[in-house]
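Take a specimen:
=====
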Amino acid sequence: MTQSFESRTLLRDVTLRDGLQLTGKMLPTARKLEIARRLLELGVPALEIGSMARPDLVPPMANTVEVISELTPEELDRCWVWVATPRHVEKAAAAGARHFQYCFSASDSHNQANIGRSTEDSLAAMPAAIELAQQVGGSIQLCIATSFTCPFEGRVPEQRVIDIANDPRAHGAVDVVVCDTLGQAVPAEVYSLVSRVRLETPQRGIVFHGHDTWGLGVANSLAAVAAGAMTVDGALGGLGGCPFAPGASGNTASEDLLFATRPDWLNPTTFGSFVELSEKTLAELGEANRSKAAQGARSNATAFEWVIGGGR
């Protein structure tokens, strides 16, 4: 199998958080646990397993605490939980979580719609969130939503993201998550911003979180990797989107990212199992499969080893 620099890329599957938050159905705790454990078993390095958002606002996340509490410490070591306040960190940590994605928006308008406070208020509370995470031996990421465009304010200046990443109140974060929340960025923009985060802010890991609204999810993710990101987010079948971001569609499909980056743990058989898990989950949710790679895996090109049943 031909390898390239992309094979070093880590996938974080966000199906159980970002992927589910716009669906009309809530998966029971037992089913979420099955999906999480199957993804880990297949080799996915990291998962996002839920959100501490208010269940009346994001109903599919209502059983996140139950999901956390049922996973083992070893499983939770590869799992992240979305948080937006110190209280969120406290509640998730009490259930057993140790990795927290502290998220707020670069644009005030979206932060008000999504979290109910200004960007400055979210940033001001981050030191307390970092301290709570460190008290339980955990880690926390700085997640900057609307890093490229905002549904209410339009284009977000690069410098705005750099200033947030450079703010001393965020320096306890182990990673910076750069988010194309609306999927409106193009590869040149992604490469430029991720390069600046890498070169002009404290040394931390960089995660790229992209959406495929305009069909550039994979291209943008590869541009982020070329600029220095080591982790990219994806969801099964391209599920997901932000309920407070008009114009946002699903995440970049995990299947597409895996087919493009070919991590060392992936082979045609594993990929086939991944596609089958995706298909089953999407059917349960009544959602369409937006993954081009999953569609390719079901094609009749039987001489190609990545087609399910092909060349094997």
